[in-house]
TrEMBL record:
Keywords: DNA damage, DNA recombination, DNA repair, Metal-binding, Zinc, Zinc-finger
Protein name in UniProt: Recombination protein RecR
Positions of the Toprim domain: 81-182
Family statement drawn from the similarity comment of this UniProt entry: Belongs to the RecR family.
GO molecular function: DNA binding; zinc ion binding
Gene designation per UniProt: recR
UniProt function note: May play a role in DNA repair. It seems to be involved in an RecBC-independent recombinational process of DNA repair. It may act with RecF and RecO.
GO biological process, one term: DNA recombination
Keyword Heme appears in the UniProt entry: no
Listed Pfam families: RecR_C, RecR_HhH, RecR_ZnF, Toprim_4
Zinc recorded as keyword: yes
Species assigned in the record: Candidatus Roizmanbacteria bacterium RIFCSPHIGHO2_01_FULL_39_8
C4-type ZnF: 58-73
Classification via SMART domains: TOPRIM
Length: 205
């Protein structure tokens, strides 16, 4: 690394700070940038420069967008009465792959995690409750991750939503994503929690 020119070294050091990037990969990426045509590098640099200033939260679902409202919320073909609650924006990308879902989303930007001092007030739960109060909702799908923090977050939101149902007579369904054995998986390698969820979520056959 000491033999590299300083500007190239600084780029490699920055890339090394990215998740999943080690020193060798960071060096290779830095050299890749060096070999790019100058026009491509300028375009990339421009996008990085405006990343923070142009990217904002959707005023409806808290997805990332460059406008006031994201393209998903503006899409008239989607069912705005079905809201899937996810932890992060990247979770939306998983749902959008393959056109398996036609509803809308609400992004929490985190989950309840007392060990890291993250409570309900630190994520966008209140924004969700306000949205439910002021719109016609048929179903809320809780799609937080199936780990301890994700389950705690889903349970907290469920309790809050159940309270809204009772107080306002909203009458919407509250559902949770089914979890269990993956297609092509083997029972031999499944942990007890996965098997438990698979049994609890079993369907008629």
């Amino acid at each position: 690394m000491n033999s590299l020119p300083n500007n190239l070294k600084q780029i490699a050091l920055f890339l090394e700070r990215l998740p999943g990037i080690g020193q060798k990969t960071a060096n290779r990426l830095a050299f890749y940038f060096l070999r790019l045509p100058e026009s491509d590098l300028k375009e990339f640099a421009k996008n990085i420069t405006f990343l923070k200033t142009k990217t904002k939260f959707c005023n409806v679902c808290m997805n990332l967008t460059e406008e006031e409202t994201c393209s998903i919320c503006l899409d008239k073909k989607r069912d705005s009465g079905v809201i899937t609650v996810v932890e992060e924006v990247l979770d939306i990308l998983s749902f959008e792959t393959g056109n398996i879902y036609s509803g809308v989303y609400h992004v929490l930007h985190g989950r309840i995690d007392p060990l890291n001092h993250i409570g309900p007030e630190d994520i966008y739960i209140e924004k969700l409750l306000t949205r439910v109060k002021t719109s016609k909702v048929i179903e809320i799908i809780l799609a937080t991750n199936p780990d301890m923090e994700g389950e705690a977050t889903a349970m907290f939101i469920k309790n809050q939503l159940s309270g809204l149902n009772k107080l306002n007579g909203k009458g919407f369904k509250i559902t949770r994503l089914a979890y269990g054995l993956p297609i092509g998986g083997s029972l031999e390698y499944a942990d007890y929690m996965t098997l438990r969820k698979a049994i609890e979520g079993r369907n008629s056959y």
